[in-house]
Design a protein that fits this description.
heterodimer; A: 142 residues; mainly alpha; 7 helices; 0% strand; B: 169 residues; Globin-like; 59% helix; globular
């Protein structure tokens, strides 16, 4: 389903609220992904994956920056994420299913930190946005 | 797949708190499910699905009550949910993907007509009822849903999903 005007407005508004903390939440989402879905650790053999790891924190910030870029380019996600898509498809070869596991963990993380803001309608808009990001990242696989 | 002792302890200790808000949690999880995954509404043509509807509240309460049965029988979830498993497989015929969070295989579920193409190729992961339950728990019990607790709940809900779909063939 395409992102409606209401979805875009909701995602932008939430992102403004998250402000400079997106990195913290993306890091927590990564930690939760590794904890709940240990198979995802396979992509990070070179990382220290213990809780509080500086490498995971740095990676969380990268993920956050990419998501913030995506929010700024909701009209052209495939274009904005093209380079990242190529990286994940051709070099990193991440199974696209794993992006959705990260999305799940990000939504749980945000619900913990902003319980009042993640009502079903906002949750749905965010889920849609993350699905489109996932799709843009996976579009170079074929 | 079975739960470790530590995971059972987590589930049991959180269940005490959950059961005091059981109806609200079940209802909210369903509201999230229908909002994020509108295709799941197909199983409820006979329901009024607006937020706060009596049907939603009653069904949400049933869902959480069933989870409670599973929590009280962590040694034999299959036995505890046997009747429900038959109901979902033979009578309701809910596509298994609708229960799942991640992993565990299973057929891909229905996708909306305009779903981005890549999603139809991916395995059916997060974001259906188990996901919506997790997000609901995270909203209500942010301090309790540590990464370990989150992982324990993901595993428990995957186990429940497996049991509910094991009678499909």
């Amino acid at each position: 389903m395409a992102l409606s005007g209401a979805d875009r407005a909701a995602v932008r508004a939430l992102w403004r609220k998250l402000g400079g903390n997106v990195g913290i939440y993306a890091t927590e989402a990564l930690e939760r992904t590794f904890c709940s879905f240990p198979a995802t650790k396979t992509y990070f053999p070179h990382f220290d994956l213990s809780p509080g790891s500086a490498q995971v924190k740095a990676h969380g910030q990268k993920v956050a920056d990419a998501l913030t870029t995506a929010v700024a380019h909701l009209d052209d996600l495939p274009g904005a994420l093209s380079a990242l898509g190529a990286l994940h498809a051709h070099r990193l070869r991440v199974d696209p299913a794993h992006f959705q596991l990260l999305s799940h963990c990000l939504l749980v993380t945000l619900a913990r930190h902003y319980p009042g803001d993640l009502a079903p309608a906002m949750h749905a808009s965010l889920h849609k946005f993350l699905s489109h990001v996932t799709s843009a990242l996976a579009s170079r696989y074929g | 797949m079975s739960l470790t002792k530590a995971e059972r302890t987590i589930i049991l200790s959180m269940w005490g708190k959950i059961s005091t808000q059981a109806d609200a949690i079940g209802t909210e999880a369903l509201e999230r499910l229908f909002a994020s995954f509108p295709q799941t509404k197909t199983y409820f043509p006979h329901f009024e699905l607006r937020a706060g509807s009596a049907h939603l509240r009653a069904h949400g309460a049933k869902v959480v009550a069933a989870l409670g049965d599973a929590v009280r029988s962590l040694d034999d979830v299959a036995g505890a949910l046997s009747r429900l498993s038959e109901l979902h497989a033979y009578i309701l015929r809910v596509d298994p993907v609708n229960f799942k969070v991640g992993g565990g295989g299973g057929p891909q579920g229905p996708q909306g007509p305009q779903a981005p193409p890549a999603l139809t190729q991916a395995l059916p992961p997060a974001q259906l009822l188990s996901h919506c339950l997790l997000v609901t728990l995270a909203s209500h019990f942010p301090a309790d849903l540590t990464a370990d607790a989150h992982a324990a709940w993901d595993k428990f809900l995957s186990l429940v999903s497996c049991v509910l779909t094991e009678k499909y063939r």
